[in-house]
Design a protein that fits this description.
By secondary structure, this protein is of the alpha+beta class. Helix content is 17%, strand content 43%. Strands 1, 2, 3, 4, 5, 6 and 7 form a seven-stranded mixed sheet that branches. The longest helix has 13 residues. The radius of gyration is 14 Å and the shape is globular.
Length: 133
């Protein structure tokens, strides 16, 4: 009998400062295909919260940072071996000082120009998002 694949609804904040985008390096995970890879910040949508509420909460929890959520960039499903991610990405901007966030749930961060983004080892879903920017 085939195991049922869980679908996770997640949101991503694409934060731009001038001509650079904020990239975050994930911590180690039990899934090697997302472990210590790069992503746009964000996370799971809980219960009946909206995408905007989830983004604001996730960024506050993971980075102790306030953001403003702007327009939706895209929304798509990506199938990993153990789960499916339903990713909704939004343009966001800092609500306060651009570098006042903390690395509470990430190993590293970088501000990179669009043409430099391809140099990082992204999660597969975030790599798909890159193609849409």
């Amino acid at each position: 009998m085939k195991k049922k694949i869980e679908t996770r609804r997640v949101v991503a904040a694409v934060i731009q400062r001038g001509d650079k985008f904020l990239c975050m390096k994930r911590t180690r995970s039990r899934y090697p295909y997302i472990s210590e890879r790069w992503e746009f910040p964000g996370g799971k949508v809980d219960g009946d919260e909206s995408d905007h509420e989830a983004l604001i909460r996730e960024i506050k929890e993971e980075m102790d940072w306030d953001i403003y959520v702007g327009r939706k960039i895209t929304e798509f499903d990506y199938d990993y071996p153990d789960f499916t991610t339903h990713l909704a990405a939004y343009y966001c901007r800092p609500g306060d000082d651009e570098d006042s966030f903390k690395l509470l749930d990430h190993l590293d961060y970088k501000w990179l120009k669009r043409e430099e983004l391809e140099t990082l080892n992204w999660t597969d879903a975030d790599r798909k998002l890159l193609e849409m920017l």
